[in-house]
Structures are given as C-alpha cells and as structure tokens.
Design a protein that fits this description.
mainly beta, Lipocalin, 9-stranded antiparallel sheet, 1 helix, 9 strands, 13% helix
Length: 119
C-alpha cells in the first residue's frame, strides 16, 4: 500500500511542473558528452496536454509523450521518422530533462514566454 502511494506521489510530482497547454518560446539544449556543456538554441514548445507536447526547431519536431516516470520521444523531419526512444525524465521547475541512453545524449527543454495561439 505504501509503495503504491509513493508511486502515485512521484507520478503527480513528475507531471506537476508541466506548463499549461499552449505555445511557448523555448530553449532546446543537447549534450553528447558529460564533459561538454550543452549546445542550446531557440525552439517552439507546443504543450497539448499534461502528457503530450511537441518541440519544434526549424523543420525538426520532437513529439513527446510523457507517462509516469517515462518519456517517449519521436523525432521527425517533415513526415520522415528520424529517431525514437523512451527514457526516464525529470522536471526541475519548468525545465524538462531526459537522456537518450543509447546515444548518450542529454536533452533539456526550458519553456519561456507564452506565444499567441497558432492560426
């Protein structure tokens, strides 16, 4: 019983930092080595719900499916599937962090100001 309560609390805290649905200017960072600082650039974050979001940088889109303790990532360029993986994730404030263990690449998404709805 206690472990079920603890799992529910962890799941709730993992999703509690998700920004409200909407579009945001964001910063997307990636690091391919623990010794290197991440490389960061501008992105657009579209939060569709507490469990679904998309991050767009130019013509590359990362579709994110957040489950309790696990994040599923699908990376697309146009309609072409470039990559997909699942990974544990965590929130630090509104910053989302996760690592592609197979490629040893760390990711960080930091939402910024809210944007007007897409037309």
């Amino acid at each position: 019983m206690r472990s079920a309560w603890l799992l529910a609390l962890v799941a709730l805290s993992a999703s509690a930092a998700v920004p409200a649905p909407g579009r945001y200017a964001a910063t997307f960072c990636a690091a391919t080595s623990p010794a290197q600082p991440p490389s960061c650039g501008p992105a657009e974050l579209d939060v569709r719900s507490r469990s679904h979001a998309e991050v767009r940088m130019s013509d590359i889109v990362y579709r994110l499916n957040l489950r309790p303790g696990q994040l599923d990532v699908t990376m697309l360029q146009g309609r072409m599937l470039l990559d997909g993986f699942s990974a544990p994730y965590n929130w630090s404030g509104t910053t989302l962090r996760f690592t592609d263990g197979e490629k040893n690449t760390r990711y960080e998404i930091r939402p910024g100001r809210r944007l007007a709805p897409a037309r």
